[in-house]
Write a structure and sequence with these properties.
The structure holds 2 protein chains of 2 kinds.
Chain A lengths: L4 E10 L3 E5 L11 E9 L2 E2 L2 E8 L8 E8 L4 E8 L26 E8 L2 E2 L1 E9 L1
Antiparallel strand pairs in A: 1-10, 2-8, 3-7, 3-10, 4-9, 5-6, 5-8
Chain B lengths: L2 H12 L1 E9 L6 E12 L16 E5 L2 H6 L24 E4 L2 E13 L2 E10 L1
Antiparallel strand pairs in B: 1-2, 1-4, 2-3, 3-6, 4-5, 5-6
The chains are: A mainly beta, B mainly beta.
Chain lengths: 133, 127
């Protein structure tokens, strides 16, 4: 691929509740064969849930498909996942991820993070990074 | 040769690598979003340069947008939906430049556009 590297999909302070706050995408990732994702919540206080969904797109960002879902609550945590484009993948209907899991083998040419939180957090930061190759 | 290419060539020959850092959050909950950029740094302005807004002890820094574009710094930003938004690639006041290992805060940021294209960023760093 043309642009391998580590990209920041999201880095934001979490305060008041967020309703599926989409972050601007990282583009120019055509040809990515794999991506390692790291999502970390540095927790301060308050809040209830914080969910980061990583998505990819096959139509230039018009439609987005979930490929990984990270869930956090009221403790600091670092979570990782790896996705690969190589290898055959059986035909399956797409559905958005509703639990903490990944949809492997589905990578377009861009990635973005969508953040949802409930409750009011204080002194809390979420970061989602992608190592694309 | 474009304006950006000309600046990149000059910086490659005579510049130095610095780290542009956006700090999100505070204290133990802070996150750094870094990019290494090639910069021209005029260090510790002398008395001859005590004109305008540049004071002694401040660094005048010039970068091109090339490394920022390549890294897509500062990464994903909340989509506001607003029709007119500032260019997220342009560093902000209080972003940090790490110059030869020393963190310096940005006091002034001046993006330079030619024909609507960001071609250069002038900055003043101090602290």
């Amino acid at each position: 691929m043309d642009n391998p590297g580590v990209y920041t999909l999201a880095a934001l302070g979490i305060t008041t509740a967020l309703a599926a706050s989409a972050q601007t995408p990282i583009t120019g990732l055509a040809g990515m064969s794999a991506v390692t994702l790291e999502a970390s919540l540095a927790y301060g206080s308050g809040g209830s849930t914080c969910i980061a969904v990583v998505q990819t797109s096959f139509d230039g960002g018009t439609t987005w498909r979930d490929v990984a879902r990270f869930e956090f609550a009221t403790a600091s945590a670092v979570k990782v996942a790896n996705l690969q484009a190589a290898g055959a993948k059986a035909i399956a209907s797409y559905s958005a991820l509703s639990t903490e899991t990944v949809l492997d083998g589905v990578l377009g040419d861009r990635l973005r993070a969508v953040v949802t939180s409930t409750g009011i957090y204080a002194n809390t930061t979420l970061a989602v990074r992608a190592s694309v190759r | 040769m474009s304006d950006i290419d000309a600046l990149d060539e000059a910086l490659a020959a005579a510049g130095e690598d610095v780290i542009l850092r956006r700090i999100v959050g505070t204290g133990t909950a802070s996150v750094n979003v870094d990019v290494t950029v090639r910069a021209s740094v005029r260090r510790d302005a002398t008395a001859m340069e005590l004109v305008g807004t540049l004071a002694q002890g401040e660094d005048a820094v010039i970068i091109s947008p090339t490394q920022i574009d390549a890294a897509q710094w500062p990464g994903g930003q909340p989509e506001s939906g607003a029709v007119h938004q500032p260019d997220p690639r342009v560093p902000r006041i209080n972003d940090t430049l790490i110059i030869q290992g020393r963190p310096r805060k940005l006091k002034m940021v001046q993006p330079i556009l030619v024909d609507g294209e960001l071609v250069r960023i002038n900055m003043v760093a101090a602290g």
